[in-house]
């Protein structure tokens, strides 16, 4: 007789990170090239959004939502001690995410409202499952993640409402960015110093990251307040001034995590570098360089942090050593170059289209490289039975 908690279904549906990281990597590997074809007029999408809104929406509520789901559905069992969501419920959620991407692109012939229901329904399901698991596990400490996920859902709904009323999004896109950046300050502020401390104790004895204290709480609260101001009143002196202050605070916070001492671990260095794009993005927004700031957020902070988390979580939860291979390290470096080209070169070059294509190709190669390396691991059994660190 099979034990009650033993899983016997497809490996791909055995843990949240497997289908959703696979979907995220695959989507990221094709969507920017699709966007460039749309941007040049070589391809048209019949979905509910104009081209720019489709691009922004799908990177926030498509790609990023898949990574968030994979992360949470893998972390929550560790938080609560409960069995992970797996099997047909995980498969159904994956299909709902895919349906959202197809509907938004106009590849499923449904109405605007139906597209909104399908796409936002995915986040409703994720919110309900996360809330159920945390309450059932009485893991009240991590109940704080419900707030950002709920706001992310509201941002998506607002995105649709604005497009329906005004033809394009405004507050919805900023709120989407703000929620994801806040999540990185919240969750990244836990995992980066923790992983760094563990590695330094074993490999490089000496000064350790400063433990979470009042300064970190000030940084988190100030980031929340500043991002709310940016969403509500983006082009005002008070918003821009507080963005610059928040950038200084976040840079100071990052410096306390001893990133310079983990140069020998590319896996850790990725996390530190990705987080550094948050103060840089805040600074650029504060200086009024909105387009550059948003792409620093989108490619550097969100793209870099999610790629680093995908690599680390996949290595750990498939029983592999927590060390990058040369191709995974190269992929991250290509992503950094894509961020530099899109946020700086495109804005100041005489040939922006060539620079756009260069950034798009670098992004695509980065994610495709990771997909080729780790993609088969999502569908295969773990090589060992050791517990992930």
UniProtKB/TrEMBL annotation:
InterPro entries: NnrS
Alphabetized Pfam families for the sequence: NnrS
Signal peptide extent: none
Superkingdom field: Bacteria
Keyword annotations of the record: Membrane, Transmembrane, Transmembrane helix
TM region(s), chain numbering: 20-40, 60-80, 87-104, 110-131, 143-163, 175-193, 214-231, 237-255, 267-288, 294-314, 326-345, 357-379
Protein name, per record: NnrS family protein
Organism: Parasedimentitalea marina
């Amino acid at each position: 007789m099979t034990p009650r908690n033993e899983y016997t279904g497809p490996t791909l549906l055995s843990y949240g990170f497997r289908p959703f990281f696979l979907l995220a990597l695959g989507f990221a590997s094709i969507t920017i090239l699709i966007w460039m074809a749309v941007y040049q007029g070589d391809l048209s999408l019949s979905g509910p959004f104009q081209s720019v809104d489709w691009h922004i929406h799908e990177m926030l509520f498509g790609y990023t939502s898949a990574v968030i789901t994979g992360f949470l559905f893998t972390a929550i069992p560790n938080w609560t001690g409960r069995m992970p969501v797996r099997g047909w419920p995980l498969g159904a959620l994956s299909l709902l995410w895919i349906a959202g991407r197809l509907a938004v692109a106009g590849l499923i012939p449904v109405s605007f409202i139906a597209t909104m229901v399908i796409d936002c329904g995915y986040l409703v399901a994720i919110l309900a499952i996360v809330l159920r698991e945390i309450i059932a596990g009485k893991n009240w400490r991590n109940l704080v993640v419900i707030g950002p996920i709920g706001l992310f859902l509201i941002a998506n709904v607002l995105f649709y409402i604005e497009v329906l009323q005004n033809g394009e999004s405004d507050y919805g896109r900023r709120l989407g960015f703000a929620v994801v950046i806040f999540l990185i300050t919240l969750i990244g502020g836990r995992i980066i110093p923790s992983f760094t401390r563990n590695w330094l104790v074993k490999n490089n004895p000496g000064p350790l990251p400063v433990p979470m204290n009042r300064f970190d709480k000030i940084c988190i609260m100030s980031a929340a307040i500043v991002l709310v101001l940016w969403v509500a009143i983006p082009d005002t002196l008070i918003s821009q001034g507080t963005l610059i202050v928040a950038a200084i605070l976040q840079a100071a916070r990052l410096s306390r995590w001893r990133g310079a001492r983990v140069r020998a671990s590319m896996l850790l260095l990725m996390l530190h570098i990705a987080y550094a794009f948050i103060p840089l993005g805040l600074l650029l927004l504060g200086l009024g360089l909105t387009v550059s700031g948003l792409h620093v957020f989108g490619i550097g902070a969100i793209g870099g942090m999610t790629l680093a988390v995908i690599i680390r979580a996949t290595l750990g939860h498939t029983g592999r050593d927590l060390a990058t291979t040369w191709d995974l390290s190269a992929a991250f470096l290509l992503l950094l170059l894509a961020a530099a080209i899109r946020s700086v070169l495109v804005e100041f070059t005489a040939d922006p289209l060539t620079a756009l294509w260069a950034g798009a190709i670098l992004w695509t190669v980065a994610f495709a490289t990771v997909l080729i390396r780790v993609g088969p691991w999502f569908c295969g059994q773990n090589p060992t039975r050791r517990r992930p660190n």
